[in-house]
Here is the input.
Amino acid sequence: MPIVHITKLVAGGQGLGELEDGRKIFVWGVLPSEDVEVEITIEKKSFAEGVAVKVIKPSPERLTPREANYLAHSPWQIMTMAAENQAKIDIVHEQFTREHLDTNAIPPEIISAEGDGYGYRNKMEYVFAEHEDELTYALTQRASHDKIPVIVSALAMPSINEAARDLLIELRGLGASVRDLDSLVLRSNQFGDVVAVLYINHPRYKKLTLPHTLKGLQIFFHNPRNRSRRGAKLVQELGDKVLTDTLLGESFAYDGLSFFQVNVPVYERALEHMKKFVTGPVIDMYAGVGSIGLSVATGHITLVELEPASVSMAKRNAETADAEVIESSTEQALEHINPDVTVIFDPPRAGLHARVVGRCLAVKPPQIVYLSCDPATLARDLALLSDEYDIADVTLYNFFPRTPHIETLVILKRK
Here is the structure.
């Protein structure tokens, strides 16, 4: 196995090094300045990928991970929070530099919740496995796609871990097997109420009873030959599937199927900052349950969302507001982007579709509020918009401590 010197962390979370033949190698489980022995998992002509199996020269920022399976969903458990925050700032700098954007706009600090970066996630998703002849939850290991057995998560809110344990006891009591089960989604609000969505592989399944730690449970039959969950059939529903949380003093409803931010305390800080810039009517694209537009707008609000579960919750949340909800993809609702309405974007990791960027450049809305979960696609989109827009403000948020994910809020003003 090669010994590699790690120079930096890159977008995505791996460390960057170089092999003896000059190829770059991207390595999991490492920190800058470390020398590590690497098991290569992917070989390409121009680069390789791998996992550290032995740290020969550790970084002074290295910590012992809290979980043995940390690589599966929180690979940055190995560093101090100070080192993590700095790494995220550096990655945003690198992406801005790559697209020739002004790095002076990037603040020297990232906003994060107090504490050690654990116990914050209000959503967890598991697959299933067998461990020691017993049904258990599992996560998919990076670089191998192996199933890693797990019962609880150090990142999850305690209420989620408690409900997950109780539901697993119920499933084991029914004699459920891995063949019967596809995956499980658990969500908790800030009050500790938990709902779950269980996907099963067999349409005729034994009826479950609702554990006392779950507020609601939905069970869907999901054809294992269909990778998408669209069209999954509801076969059992117990309790109340709807959760509520408060953002800037307003109550928002969501469920296990709809989109809601994972780290509510830090998300609320982002909303507070957005509100300083937003006046008048807004169009909120990729709106989810409407939590951004309904929290920050002072005029009429148009919410555009494609996923039916999120649309249903958005309509519920907008009932008492001056708002309309449009069930559509952003790409199919471009006519709502116009020259006198602020546009809010909170897109998936792929960023903005070229047609969306083109519409903004054509009609030039006065202001764009862009909340991004991927600094690479954010920087790409900002570069495309730079002919017509100036960057008025950049704020970095650590929505996902102990992971490489970075949330960046950018306010663009029309030139």
In short: The chain has a mean pLDDT of 95. The chain is about 20% helix and 35% strand. The longest strand covers residues 47-57. The chain has three domains: 3-62, 87-114+263-414, 123-244.
